[in-house]
Amino acid sequence: MQDVLPIDDVLDDLIGAVAARGCAVLQAPPGAGKTTRVPLALLRAGTIQGRIIMLEPRRLAVRGAAERLAQQLGEDVGQTVGYRMRGETTVSGATRIEVVTEGILTRMIQSDPELSGIGAVIFDEFHERSLNADLGLALTLEIRDALRPDLVLLVMSATLDAGPVAELVGAPVITSQGRAFPVDPKWLDRPLRKDVRFDAAVADLIVRAAGETTGGVLVFLPGEGEIRRVQARLDGQLPADCCVRPLFGALPFKDQRAAIAPVDRGRKIVLATSIAETSLTIEDVRVVVDGGRARRARFDPGSGMSRLITERVTRAEATQRAGRAGRVAEGVAYKLWSRGEDGALPAFPPAEIEAADLTGLALELALWGSDGLPFLTPPPDGTLGEARALLGALGALDGGRITPHGRALAKLPLHPRLAHMLMRGGKKAAGLAALLSERDILRGAPADVGLRLKALDGARTAHEVDKGALARVRAEAKRLAKMAPDTASQAPEIHAALAYPDRIAQRRAGDAPRFVLSGGKGAVMDAADPLAGQPYLVVTDTDGNPREAKIRGALAISETDIRAVAADQIDRVNLCLWSKRDGRVMARQQEKLGAIVLSDARWADAPQIDIATAMLDGVRDLGFKFSAAAERFRARVALVRAVVPDLPDLTDAALMETLHTWLLPHLGAVQTASQWKGFDALPALRGLLDWSQMQTVDTQAPSHFTTPLGHQKPIDYSGDAPEITLRLQEMFGTTRHPIVAGRPLRVTFLSPGQKPIQTTMDVPGFWTSSYSDVRKDMRGRYPKHPWPEDPTQADPTVRAKPRK
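^ that's the sequence the OP posted. Answer follows.
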């Protein structure tokens, strides 16, 4: 007799909804039994015509679900229940339920859009919102709408906000109440101090949990590194009957099974990644220790690189994790954060489609022939655009349409980069493709991928080998080699350059091993790495830092090989650029692959217009240095512009914005900072005004004042009033104060020794007031010059008195 599970209470409602609507959304908390009960209930109902396909997010979950379903039927896997994943298929002619990884459904749909012989598709654990699940759901919805209205669709989830999914699918929501047993949450009394190491804090919490509880303990950690560090810290800290088992995706399958299976005696402590959040039943777990962190991939469209970040879990993930403690009995969930921090956790993790590399998705959409799929979360336009640009560079798309080469890439179980490498590089590229698809097979080794290739070929190495990963790579390499064409053998670095044309790296000048990638981004390498001194690399892996990525995998490549593999991408360009460092325009002829410069020579006969255009950047850098005459002209225009607003704006800001219009035609041979310093911009400024405007300026704000002697004195317009400076004797006989632009002219009188003696804006008033005091003072100092008692009756002069 089967154990009673919470999901059993809603199975009749679920079968009824499927029979009536052909679709449903099932929301069931962890431990409810949806994975093990629902497919068999649909099969027994007899309403499904054809096979039932159930998607699981991970390979381990696929095997586990298939085995539990088959066990309930008293059969072996491969009979009524089978499974299918990349590189492994266990089905037969009698199979009615297939448990598959999420990417398998996409391949099935692209090969047969009608999904012939399939009666139902179940999306299990959809709350994880993987990219493949989102794409698979969008494709399935379009198939139901256009080709297969009879296709049954069921979306199952533990913590998903079901409303939006139900609206998208057009399905009722069936909810299973509660988990099988209550779970008692235990938070920290206060937030974890910043100076406490994460692995030490988790280890201490595990020791505490083991001392306060009974039963198996499931610990959630972000990744393999944290698992190994916590495992090391637990050595000697736990009771002798405790057995510590790691569980992560790259662990060999037999070790994964050991972590899931019950122990014969004592207690089991499972240190797991998020792989244990859903789909897996880990026997006898009554305690959960949640480190409160999750590791996610983030793709930066600007750099074209992904990186893994570790961040706080969401409330949905914490609920999933805690629920694992209540599957077999009342449980306890220890959380490495305070109760106050719990309320600040975000509600749900981001959908993978919002943060992932979308190159594979873009290729699938091109193969499908439509962008208008009904996605629950539409892919970001920027990331999707970058993905399509890369596919164009790989020859998979042409004008947005898929090419025959693109169709070939879509059939391969690889990222489009590696699929392109395999199709162009042939069977010899299979090993490298498998290596770059799998986790690093060497621990603590330098960045050189060549070391991994030698280890793959069986060579001895001084570095620790991940034997499980090595076995997987070798098996995958054999499988890929069967799919690859026979082509001429090429070096691994050429294969890598085919996959990563945007990551061919050139070492920058200087002692530090810093590189610029052909895609435009910067990268850095450990100075002690043997590849650090290489002039060129092909970068296969980085930490994804958007500022300057750290190189974790690379192959050295020669310039000759770069030219051979990227001949059609090398541009020959003529450049005129302002060099801030040199203070001059640099005219160069270069060969460039993206952002890297393969050759650089002086451009001896660069056109004058190109030099002048580049010099505009120099002007922006150096700023304006106008002559006194040019400054006076700008001041005159500004004065008149206050009453005639259609005159051009000659302020620094306005002139800087319009350099190309007014300055470029006048720069001539100016191409250095010193030449710009001596450049007279007055003709260029005057060129901004037409004849009529110049007449207006000359009339209302003349450049000079004509003295009674007929001399031209420049008018200074830079102050709050126009001003002239001249010797006092030159204004003898003046009885009316001079006016400019409707305003009194400020007059500064000079002594015969050219020293200022008086400033006035009322010359007639000066004659009748202050002049007498000035005359008394100046007559003694300059007796040879005229100082008449009545200056209004004297003739203007610049001469001394004639000798008697």
